């Protein structure tokens, strides 16, 4: 079986990618890690993880299955930064939706949904670790069931999460820590740190 793993260079999953590769290498001999869509080659399964690109029909056609891991209860929460938006909304669990990608935005047929419990105190690295562990379990189930991977269409009301920007992590100097705690849990301190303006100067909370 030939496997491709698509993961962007500057994405959160990079810290796990080699560990992830080792975790499935016992079953798969040929694994190719791809950083750019135009480098995708023919494979049986293409695992698209924290990639940041929508694949074209031609790119998708190079693999029999194009498996995406998305942390929202699809079709709710399609789009960008689902983990961030889910935690900010006060969710006590995440739903990891695993689907076979099509040309749309997170609109492919569902392979599996997995609940990931949160206790409300985890910081971003801890949340990512929980997601990674759930991914490994689901990946191995998919590999075991290949090529008879069952899929169902997405059902329910569709909505989309917007892309987050630096300004989305801005708070007031008068903000209560309790009120911004979920934001503190999920911000990227390098790209999108929590910050505030005071007397015409900008300060970061790190």
Can you give me a brief rundown of this structure?
With 206 residues, the chain is α/β, with parallel strands linked by helices. The protein is built from five helices and ten strands, in the order βαββαββαββαβαββ. The protein has helices at residues 17-25, 57-60, 82-88, 124-145, 181-186; strands at residues 2-6, 30-34, 43-48, 63-70, 78-79, 93-100, 109-117, 160-161, 194-198, 201-205.
What can you see in these coordinates?
Helix content is 23%, strand content 27%. The mean pLDDT is 95. The protein is built from 5 helices and 10 strands; from the N terminus they run E-H-E-E-H-E-E-H-E-E-H-E-H-E-E. Strands 2-1-3-4-6-7 form a 6-stranded mixed β-sheet, sandwiched between helices. With 206 residues, the protein is of the alpha/beta class. The longest helix is centred in the middle third of the chain and has 22 residues, at 124-145. It starts with a strand and ends with a strand. The chain has helices spanning 17-25, 57-60, 82-88, 124-145, 181-186; strands at residues 2-6, 30-34, 43-48, 63-70, 78-79, 93-100, 109-117, 160-161, 194-198, 201-205.
- One letter per element, helices H and strands E, the order comes to EHEEHEEHEEHEHEE
Low-confidence stretches: none
**Radius of gyration of CA atoms, rounded to a whole number:** 18 Å
- Please report the total strand number as a whole number: 10
Backbone shape: elongated
Number of alpha- plus pi-helical segments: 5
Structural class computed from helices and strand pairing: alpha/beta
Mean pLDDT: 95
Estimate the helix proportion, in percent. Answer: 10-25%
Strand order of the largest sheet: 2-1-3-4-6-7
| Strand coverage percent | 25-35%
Distance between the termini: 44 Å
The description of the largest β-sheet is: 6 strands, mixed
């Amino acid at each position: 079986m030939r496997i491709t793993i698509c993961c962007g260079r500057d994405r959160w999953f990079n810290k796990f990618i080699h560990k992830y590769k080792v975790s499935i290498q016992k079953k798969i001999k040929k694994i190719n890690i791809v950083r750019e869509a135009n480098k995708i080659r023919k494979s049986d399964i293409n695992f698209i993880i924290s990639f940041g690109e929508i694949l074209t029909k031609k790119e998708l056609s190079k693999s029999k299955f194009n498996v995406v891991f998305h942390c929202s209860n699809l079709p709710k929460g399609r789009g960008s930064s689902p983990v961030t938006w889910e935690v900010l909304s006060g969710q006590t669990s995440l739903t990891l939706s695993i689907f076979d990608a099509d040309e749309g935005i997170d609109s492919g047929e569902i392979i599996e949904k997995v609940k990931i419990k949160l206790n409300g105190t985890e910081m971003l690295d801890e949340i990512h670790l929980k997601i990674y562990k759930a991914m490994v379990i689901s990946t191995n189930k998919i590999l075991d069931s290949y090529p008879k991977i069952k899929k169902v269409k997405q059902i329910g009301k569709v909505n989309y999460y917007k892309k987050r920007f630096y300004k989305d992590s801005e708070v007031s100097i008068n903000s209560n820590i309790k009120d911004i705690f979920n934001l503190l849990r999920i911000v990227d301190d390098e790209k999108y740190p929590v910050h505030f303006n005071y007397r015409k100067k900008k300060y970061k909370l790190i």
